[in-house]
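SAMPLE LOG
Freezer: B-3
Tube label: C17
Construct: single chain, 211 aa
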Amino acid sequence: MKLYSRYRNSAGQRVRIALNLKGLAYDYVAVENMRTEAFRRINPQGLLPTLDIDGRIVGQSTAIIEWLEETQPTPSLFPDDPMDRMAARSFAQFVACEIHPIHNHRVRDHLIDAAGWSEDQTMAWYEHWIVRGLATLEAMLAERPVETTFCYGDRPSVADIYLVPVIGNARWFGFDVSRFEQVLGVVAVCERLDAFRDAAPDQQPDFPGEA
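STRUCTURE (predicted):
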């Protein structure tokens, strides 16, 4: 397998974590600019991550993670309990569908290029939506019938896989996330695991070093 990604591509980080948790080897292909015609010939969506499976190209992190689960079911990326499994999916999809798209780089670029926003205005937009989203995730964790080590259980699931990169994005831009105690507690546990550490932006071959 070849994974086309970039060190700060948070959706790619999700897939890297999933591959690591499954213990699957892959070749990392760094993509500096996914807007090029050359990359669109690889993936017509023009998005990262992209997984090449023996020449079959698939995009979208959720689709890739579901394929990994279907083809390599052990260890599972989903809780055993059906209710927890549903909750973990809901948590992950809130990150993927409600938090990530609103502050995606394409949205921020459009606000600057087409709407004439300043960098400060776009960062205020980003901070508003990511902090609001994290507040929702904190509330979702608070509603669990039993507090667990990871989001939904005593082993990492898709919920944790999606949570860690979004916190990483917030920290990268210096947003204050200190009040999200349950979220940060889960993230701290995840970050002690090799599968999460090895998938982090600063561990990727194309990481340019500290700014």
